[in-house]
Amino acid sequence: METTQLVKGVLDLAVLAVVAEEDGYGYDVVRRLRAAGLDEVGDASVYGTLRRLYNAGALTSYVVPSEEGPHRKYYGINKQGNDTLVREAKTWRSFASTLEDLLMTAEGKT
Questions:
Q1: Per-residue pLDDT tens for 5-50?
Q2: Per-residue confidence at 64, pLDDT binned at 50, 70, 90?
Q3: Helix (H) or strand (E) holding 106
Q4: Count of domains in the chain?
Q5: DSSP bridge pairs for 75
Q6: Who's near 60: CB < 8 A, 6+ residues apart?
């Protein structure tokens, strides 16, 4: 199964979960997603998701000066983002449970 398409479908939820754990800048969020097992997540997809979630009002942002290069724009979750995270997590768990039930039934017939 092509995991890239699966990741695209749940990237908002994954990014919200990572930022809810701790604020982060773009590449930090990418690194943490990959460390969690989402190896196929693309840099551009994460940066775009962060911007879109920020523009939608789900994230806050602030700039932190860096002595080693350009300033870094950090993202943090706010109440709206947390509400979205809770709602989407519930939807994901329901979907995953339904799919698991379907697979168990299908595998039991083979």
A1: 778 889 999 999 999 999 999 999 999 999 999 998 999 999 999 9
A2: very high
A3: helix 79-108
A4: 1
A5: 24, 61
A6: 54, 75, 76, 77, 78
Token pair, residue 86, equals: 């809770």
Sign of CA dihedral 24, 26, 27, 31: positive
Q: Domain containing 86 — which CATH number?
A: 1.10.10.10
Cα 8 off chain centre by: 9
Find all residues with CB under 8 Å of 83, minimum gap 6, and list them. Answer: none
